[in-house]
Amino acid sequence: GGSAALYLLDGLRAPEDHNQWTTDTDALRRFVGDDVTLVFPVGGRSSFYTDWYRPSSTNGQERAYKWETFLTRELPDFLARYGVSRTNNAIVGPSMGGNAALVLAAHHRNQFKFAGSFSGFLHPTFPLWNEAMRAAMWDEGNFNLADMWGPIDDPAWTRNDATVQAELLRGLPMYIWSGNGAPGPLDASHGVGETVNAMGLEAIAMTAAQIFRDRINAAGIPARVDIVNGTHTWPYWAQALETARPMILEALGVR
After folding, report:
1. Distance between CA atoms of residues 243 and 227, nearest Å
2. Which one, of 118, 148, 140, lies nearest residue 50 by Cα?
3. What pLDDT score does 184 carry?
4. Element spanning 15, H or E
5. Within a 13 Å sphere around the CA of 187, how many CA atoms are in the beta-carbon half?
6. Could you give the residue numbers annotated as active site?
């Protein structure tokens, strides 16, 4: 691709050997004719793409996650050797990666020109949602939430809450997508249990999208927010990326 770059973050269950955008969607084909470099970070399950305070104390993790440092300092330096701009980037992510995409863009406006969240949990400080995160992270690798951002009153929580940090996103082109939990044809290949779980997760994501939408509307911060039929699964996120594609290319100034 060209000097502009699109970072595509993964979800909570990010594998250690590939990025699911490359296997569960047609993202590579969708952008094949565009002058933009696609960046697929690999790994980081249950990380929320943030800098942790310390290694997870409940699963023998040897090193603390430092994903914000990697994505905003180390990786851009590496990519610059291959002609990729440090400052003309877009970033999107589903689920775990959705809130992270907005938060990283909010705190690194000199790097990111567009941010997109697909089924993201955009308000982690909302009452009791931290407990949902705790359960999800325990289920996916026995990770300890307290080692990530500390107790709920720690400033790291508000720093990593896209809804709380909405003002820092003013002027940034954004696309927020969420399903409403209603299954459709794209769920046909999934089992009943998987579909029911995806419906429940998307109901939470929809609530978060609505809260975020209301917050930015009240503040006069423009963004495209779509809440449509759909569940918490990759086929819907592939559709959301296709919708976002022209917005991404325009923000990056490429064809």
Report:
1. 13
2. 148
3. 87
4. none
5. 20
6. 95, 202, 232
